[in-house]
Amino acid sequence: MMSKFPTYKEVPIAGNIYDPGKLVYKTGDWRTFKPVIDHEKCIKCYICWLYCPEPSIDRTKDGGVEINYEQCKGCGICAAECPVKCIEMVKG
Amino acid sequence: MVAIKDLPVEELYLPGHRLCPGCGPSIAIRMMMKAAEKNTIVTTATGCMEVGTTLYPYTSWLVPWVHTAFENTAATASGIEAAYKAMGRRSSEQRKINIIALGGDGGTFDIGIQALSGALERGHDFLYLCYDNEAYMNTGIQRSGATPHGASTTTSWGGKKIPGKPEWKKDLIGISIAHGIEFAATASIAYWNDFITKVKKALDVNGPAVIHILAPCPRGWRYEDKDTLKIARLATQTRYFPIYEFNNGKYTLNIKVPNPLPVEEFLKAQGRFKHLFKPEYSNEIQEIQEFVNKNWDRLEKLTTL
Ligand code: SF4
Ligand code: SF4
Description:
The complex is a heterodimer of chains A (92) and B (305). Chain A has 92 residues and is of the alpha+beta class. In chain A, 11% of the residues lie in helices and 17% in strands. Chain B has a single domain (12-303), classed as Rossmann fold (3-Layer(aba) Sandwich), CATH 3.40.50.970. Chain B contains eleven helices and eight strands. An eight-stranded mixed β-sheet of chain B has the order 2-1-3-4-6-5-7-8, with helices on both faces. In chain B, helix 1 packs across helix 7 (192-204) and helix 3 (73-90) packs parallel to helix 5 (113-122). The longest helix of chain B is centred in the C-terminal third of the chain and has 22 residues, at 282-303. Chain B is globular. At the A-B interface, helix 1 and helix 2 of A face helix 1 and helix 9 of B. Bound molecules: iron/sulfur cluster (SF4) (2 copies). One iron/sulfur cluster is lined by residues 37, 42-48, 65, 82, 84, 86-87 of chain A.
């Protein structure tokens, strides 16, 4: 969230945004259930990564995937689509 | 064809948007950006994707993005294209950029169709992508020209008087092809490879191209968030939503469905068709099945032309 609201003089004309990506609204607290990946079983197919609507699944340096809990809304699509069923939805 | 491992890891469509959990259109747009990549300008009509992704001072877009009113996203894309052409004539540097006009089904089938028709007729070099969640979802689920027959919405309530929406869905791709354009296609978020390939193809076309992608909506279709892809797959596997393309005069059914499931399987998975399973509307499902069969036969005939 922004610490203070800008005055009308500070708002760019037409509401243009010149630095997209700087402010990211956190949506992680929308969640009731959270996805947890069993990395032992993951085959790194990236299906979950491609289908996450947020996106809140990151690709890691070692070629795997990791959930970004700051953004994940807990829809459960990743768990439903994972071909080896290694994502579990747990409360929290 | 593309491989998932070859898709750019870099995100040009960021999280933090306020679209509902499990949003189908959001999946479509993210895939579109994976296909289009950096040199892209997007203009979006009012609709879910616009109100959800660009709440000031936030934005999900890392490419230049313009909001337009409900009716004129294709006109805005035309203007952007014309401006680039004019700038290109004045400078030695020639840049190839992708221009994408984005509209929901309301912004395309109903309110934006005049601007779309004009842009197609004038032959601007752009892609029009319609993400179809089959009603005005962002304003609270009102029926549109894309809402299918029998679906209950707040303005076509499936109750005692009518079996949901009495009319049938418009044929957007048929209308587009009738303008004499080179490329038009349907797609689905459940067939990502087909969709991403089509976006790339459409952007390569020198002139207008139209893609109509089915993108289920958990709120309006009334199913659990996690089932978005399952519902999208059922739509195609029952032949309810055929995936085909029209490329330079040739029709191709991209997803063959040799053993279709009965359309009932698609309908019964969603709350918006619940009333059709009451005894008083028992003929409706049969009617929808007949419509689906006829449409598939029509498309199969077109592929033999
Ligand atoms: S639960 Fe939904 S939002 Fe969260 S990571 Fe999985 S697909 Fe993304
Ligand atoms: S879908 Fe499952 S197996 Fe594939 S990358 Fe995601 S967690 Fe791993």
